[in-house]
């Protein structure tokens, strides 16, 4: 089947009457949950509350073959330059792979990875055991990771998920160049006991370098310049720039340009995770991701979790025209999971031209947003239940909590399951009327309220079940989404590994800085007017 035929067949299925129906499919087939549930790396993925049918799945997998999704995956694993616009490989799998498994061109990628992992393990051990001490001889109790985007979101999300009282160090994440962030953090820290990691792949990111300057000056003010140096480490690909910033070479943990920022939490960028939660937790995270990698590389297409998740997204975005997706982890510890996926997915898939540079002929990445349940139920889920456009939901559920409050956990899970059921099944007008009759409402009230109390249903969701939130299950979960993103890049013919869209604003900000200082006019009239208003208000 050609590419065009495969797209045509899929889109035709999406146009069939009842294509988006979910409730009737659940009712017609009691075995639907079993048919559409798959497992890998300890995770369970339930796709039964979508409108997928065996015929739709066949069409999606035919499209995957026509689009060369498996070939793209294999090129990625082989270290080929799948990131064409930057002429780079995308070898984040090497970061958690066994020794000798991955090459990037002539480079033994795995050797570089394992060298850095050994250096990280040695550093973490020395800090935890008090061999490396602060300038005044104190043990380090706190680590501040200064970074933004991929140098912040991944490690911040993971530490939030895994950190428990009693773990070796407290971790803090400083991302925004808004110095209110630093001013809020600063009073909570003792410079004598604070280790500072400057995390930046490029080591040129304006926000990170500005914050690094502030924090370095804060350290130096109490410990002196030389003392401050002993509290600093860098996580970067740009070794000359780390040296120019004054970071000792043995405190630089490197990685290569074949690690994309949003795929970098497994690299030296994850050092704050290892310092805060322990090197064992970091290794567990890598092991979980590796289990998902192995599944992704070997599982047949009709049981391959990342491919199935990507295919489901193609069905929703392209065949059914749904422009957004919500991510609802029913676990407070995953409070930053949606934020991580926002960068992972929207920076990867927010593209309007193909890898060849031609405009894409179809929709690409949807808007991704989310909050933990149950909080989300009391804010935006109204729109997802009764708004005009279906918004597919990813539910993430954790079977066993790490607290002893079984009743609370049952309430949490009951709500997650209820939301998925309510979205899929809805409530017909007849059901709404019957319920109001049972409640004794008068007929005119029933007539008035029935449309408002009707839920259309047929609103899709997928559910991902983790046995417990462990380093291993979290690693597998994040890797599942990373591979989903790679598959979608291939489905859509776009480069999921570049991010040129973030550049223009950066360049313009450089030009506007002198205007804000009053040294030069702004070139854009609207900007100039706002600059003038700001300067008037600043006096
Ligand atoms: O790690 P850095 O080089 O400082 O980059 C930090 C972030 O900023 C960039 O603008 C990109 O949008 C992100 O992909 C990246 O993760």
UniProtKB/TrEMBL annotation:
Its catalytic activity?
alpha-D-glucose 6-phosphate = beta-D-fructose 6-phosphate
- Which Pfam families does the record match to this protein? PGI
As recorded in UniProt, its EC number(s) are 5.3.1.9
The protein, known as: Glucose-6-phosphate isomerase
Name the Gene Ontology molecular function terms of this record: carbohydrate derivative binding; glucose-6-phosphate isomerase activity; monosaccharide binding
Q: Which Gene Ontology CC terms are recorded?
A: cytosol
InterPro entries with a match to the protein in the record: G6P_Isomerase (IPR001672), G6P_Isomerase_C (IPR023096), Phosphoglucose_isomerase_CS (IPR018189), SIS_dom_sf (IPR046348), SIS_PGI_1 (IPR035476), SIS_PGI_2 (IPR035482)
Family named by the database record = Belongs to the GPI family.
Q: What does the UniProt keyword field contain?
A: Cytoplasm, Gluconeogenesis, Glycolysis, Isomerase
Q: Please report the organism this UniProt entry assigns to the protein.
A: Falsiroseomonas algicola
Pathways per UniProt? Carbohydrate biosynthesis; gluconeogenesis; Carbohydrate degradation; glycolysis; D-glyceraldehyde 3-phosphate and glycerone phosphate from D-glucose: step 2/4
According to its UniProt entry, the function of this protein is described as: Catalyzes the reversible isomerization of glucose-6-phosphate to fructose-6-phosphate.
Q: What does the UniProt entry say about where the protein is found? A: Cytoplasm
Entry annotation: catalytic residues: 347 (proton donor), 378, 506
Q: Which Gene3D superfamilies match?
A: 1.10.1390.10, Glucose-6-phosphate isomerase like protein, domain 1
What are the recorded Gene Ontology BP terms? gluconeogenesis; glucose 6-phosphate metabolic process; glycolytic process
The record's SUPFAM superfamilies line, in alphabetical order, gives: SIS domain
């Amino acid at each position: 089947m050609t590419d065009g035929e495969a797209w045509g067949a899929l889109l035709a299925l999406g146009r069939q009457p009842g294509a988006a129906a979910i409730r009737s499919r659940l009712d017609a087939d009691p075995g639907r949950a079993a048919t559409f549930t798959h497992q890998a790396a300890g995770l369970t993925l339930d796709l039964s509350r979508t409108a997928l049918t065996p015929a739709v799945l066949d069409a999606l997998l035919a499209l995957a073959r026509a689009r060369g999704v498996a070939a793209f995956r294999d090129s990625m694993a082989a270290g080929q330059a799948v990131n064409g616009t930057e002429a780079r490989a995308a070898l984040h799998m090497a970061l958690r792979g066994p020794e000798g498994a991955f090459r990037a061109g002539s480079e033994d990628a795995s050797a570089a990875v394992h060298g850095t992992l050994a250096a990280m393990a040695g550093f973490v051990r020395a800090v935890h055991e008090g061999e490396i001490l602060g300038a005044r001889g104190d043990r380090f109790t706190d680590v501040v990771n200064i970074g933004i985007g991929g140098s912040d979101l991944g490690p911040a999300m993971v530490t939030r998920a895994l950190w428990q009282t009693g773990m070796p160090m407290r971790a803090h994440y400083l991302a925004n160049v808004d110095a209110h962030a630093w001013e809020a953090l600063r009073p909570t820290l003792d410079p004598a006991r604070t280790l500072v990691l400057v995390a930046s792949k490029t080591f040129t990111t304006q926000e990170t370098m500005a914050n690094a300057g502030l924090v370095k000056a804060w350290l130096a003010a109490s410990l002196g310049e030389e003392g401050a140096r002993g509290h600093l480490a860098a996580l970067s690909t740009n070794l000359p720039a780390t040296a120019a910033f004054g970071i000792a070479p043995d405190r630089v943990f490197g990685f290569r340009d074949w690690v994309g920022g949003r795929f970098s939490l497994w690299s030296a960028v994850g050092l704050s995770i290892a310092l805060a939660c322990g090197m064992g937790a970091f290794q567990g995270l890598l092991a979980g991701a590796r289990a998902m990698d192995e599944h992704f590389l070997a599982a047949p297409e009709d049981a391959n979790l990342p491919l199935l998740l990507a295919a489901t997204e193609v069905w929703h975005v392209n065949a059914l025209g749904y422009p957004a997706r919500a991510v609802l982890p029913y676990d407070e510890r995953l409070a930053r999971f949606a934020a991580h996926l926002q960068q992972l997915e929207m920076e990867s898939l927010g593209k309007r031209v193909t890898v060849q540079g031609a405009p894409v002929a179809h929709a690409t990445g949807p808007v991704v947003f989310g909050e933990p349940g149950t909080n989300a139920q009391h804010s935006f889920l109204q729109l997802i239940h009764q708004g005009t456009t279906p918004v597919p939901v990813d539910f993430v559920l954790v079977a066993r909590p790490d607290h002893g409050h079984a009743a609370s956990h049952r309430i949490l899970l009951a709500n997650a399951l209820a939301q998925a059921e309510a979205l899929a099944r809805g409530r017909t007008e007849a059901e709404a009327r019957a319920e109001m009759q049972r409640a004794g409402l008068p007929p005119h009230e029933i007539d008035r309220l029935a449309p408002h109390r009707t839920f259309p249903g047929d609103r899709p969701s997928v559910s991902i079940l983790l046995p417990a939130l462990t380093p291993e299950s979290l690693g597998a979960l994040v890797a599942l989404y990373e591979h989903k993103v790679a598959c979608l890049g291939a489905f859509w013919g776009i480069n999921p590994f570049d991010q040129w869209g973030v550049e223009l604003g950066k360049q313009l900000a450089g030009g506007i800085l002198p205007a804000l200082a009053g040294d030069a006019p702004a070139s854009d009239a609207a900007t100039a007017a706002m600059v003038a208003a700001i300067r008037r208000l600043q006096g």
